[in-house]
Design goal:
The protein is built from 8 helices and 17 strands. By secondary structure, the protein is of the alpha+beta class.
């Protein structure tokens, strides 16, 4: 039976009964007597202590502790909350040949008011210069798409006041920014540490190491991927503004960290982003309304987030079930896919588009935005 905090009324009855038994030989306590007042006052004090116990009890367990105590639990296993990371990337500066933009020069995204700083001096040649920049304030808000226009906070002689974010090898712009780790994420990592303690480089260890980097939410390990003594490691960043497929910046961060903790005898570790497998769902629903369509898309996106993984199968029956679970759904016909979605190693199924077929046969696509 679970413990419950007694009410003040219950405590008054208990204390009054105890006073009656010990002082009055079972006699009744008069309503306006000093003993009746003392019973109520003492009940109030005890109720406050019970309140403290009710708060303290969950802190004893890792899976229910609040933030402060969660961090103390994590520290026992040398796990710390992941700090926010800064977005990085490059911009294309334009101006007069020979003009120098010094390191530390500030740029600003006028749309978001996010500021960025040049990592090193940049010299204009052939009218342009590509310069590496880093977000001044760490966090996901610093990420932005390639082609975004930034402005110099202060003018630089011979250099145009505006510049453009350059695309990297993954067609991303400024990426790698992540917010401070949430309580739930930290709790999950501590529970994994308890349930799967380090084993000198097991598959679980590599997954834990990958998730030790800000922004990484899920990871998969492939032992012997390139032969004896090798390991393959892929991961996703579900909460990133650029989508679940990690950018090269984040891949490099994970690879650099894994190199510092992997067993020395390993031949090599291949850290890579999964290959996206875009999926389209086509269906008829009843009732077919704008609100219902949005709700169905959300249910499907949640399903992909829970079950779509490399080396796994997303069952057709689960897709039908997700649609049926949508509030107010009466009936539906699933047209696509026609079979279970089977993903190979290193391939991530991604819900790309949901297509709704109206009663007149018109097909309307509903982009999901790369939910996985």
């Amino acid at each position: 039976m679970s413990w419950e905090r007694p009410t003040i009324k219950t405590l008054v009855i208990r204390i009054s009964g105890d006073i009656s038994a010990r002082l009055l030989d079972g006699g009744t306590i008069l309503t306006r007597s000093v003993l009746a007042v003392l019973a109520k006052v003492w009940a109030g004090a005890c109720h406050g202590m019970y309140g403290f116990f009710a708060w303290l009890f969950p802190q004893v367990f890792v899976d229910t502790a609040e933030a402060e105590f969660m961090e103390r639990w994590a520290a026992v296993w040398n796990i710390t909350r992941l700090d926010a990371s800064s977005a990085v990337g490059s911009v294309v500066l334009s101006g007069n040949n020979g003009a120098i933009v010094p390191a530390g020069t500030l740029l600003i995204n006028n749309a978001t008011q996010q500021q960025y700083s040049l990592d090193a001096d940049a010299t204009i040649a052939s009218g342009q210069a590509v310069a590496a920049i880093t977000a001044v304030v760490a966090g996901a808000a610093g990420n932005c798409a390639a082609g975004t226009e930034l402005s110099l906070v202060a003018p630089v002689s011979g250099v145009l006041s505006t510049c453009t974010v350059k695309a990297d090898s993954n067609a991303a712009g400024l990426s790698g920014g992540a917010d401070v780790e949430t309580d739930d994420s930290l709790r999950a990592r501590v529970l994994v540490r308890l349930r799967t303690p380090p084993r000198g480089g097991s598959a679980a260890d590599y997954i834990t190491w990958a998730k030790s980097i800000s922004g990484v939410t899920r990871a998969w390990c492939y032992p012997l991927m390139m032969g004896p003594g090798t390991v393959g490691l892929c991961f996703v960043t579900d909460n990133a503004t650029t989508g679940p497929i990690p950018t090269q910046t984040v891949v490099d961060r994970v690879a650099a960290f894994v190199e510092t903790v992997r067993p020395a005898a390993m031949e090599g570790v291949d850290v890579f982003a999964p290959t996206p497998l875009e999926n389209t769902v086509r269906l008829k629903i009843t009732p077919d309304t704008t609100i219902m369509r949005a709700a169905v898309v959300q249910e499907l996106a949640d399903l992909w987030a829970r079950e779509a993984e490399p080396s796994a199968t997303l069952y057709l029956s689960h897709i039908r079930e997700a649609v049926s679970l949508t509030a107010s759904e009466l009936d539906h016909t699933l047209i696509l896919p026609t079979a279970d979605i089977v993903a190979d190693a290193g391939v991530l199924p991604m819900l790309h588009t949901v297509e709704f077929v109206a009663s007149d046969g018109t097909v309307t696509p509903y982009p999901v935005g790369g939910a996985a």
